[in-house]
Amino acid sequence: MKEWIWRYRMPVFLIIAALAHLAAFTWVRFALPQKETGADLGAEVFKLVDVEEYLPPPPPPETPVTKVMEQPKAAETVTETEEAVVEVKDESELSPPAVEYLPQHKISVVPAIPTSAILERIQYPPIALRQGIEGVVYLELFIDEEGTIRKITVLKDPGFGFAEAALAALEGIRCEPARANGKPAAVRFRYPVRFTLK
Length: 198
Hints:
Elements: H1 2-7, H2 9-27, H3 38-41, H4 115-121, H5 126-131, E1 135-143, E2 149-156, H6 162-170, E3 178-180, E4 183-185, E5 187-195
Antiparallel strand pairs: 1-2, 1-5, 3-4
């Protein structure tokens, strides 16, 4: 008999453990806590249309600041003169007449710009040189009848300091004036400055 108990002891223990669990499940009742509904919590339901977006107030309008410059002190001595004083009624008589710059398509001979002098003065922008960037700056030169560049407008700037370098190279350059019908003429001339690495 002892042999039989020792031989089948494991299955007997498993059966006894299973019966104990079954008895426990029948006598003990498990109750899960019930979820509280929205009405129990006292919460309100908001629709998306009920929510208003907060808009900050507009900034106050800027008031112009007037600065009072220091006025020069009056001269302590008064000097009288017998020279006649010329009164000018219109200020336009004092200023030189406005130059009319012809567009490029209305001239017969384009201005001769000294390219070699510009190439000697031009400096490649350091930031573009370090990064190995090339570019073209398109300028509009306002050249008067004497060949003096009066104004330069940057039409296209690729950045990286190319426009500044082109403007510095063209500063003070004189060229042969453009001609319209055989006479020197003031012209608006488009001029590209190409930056290439060797």
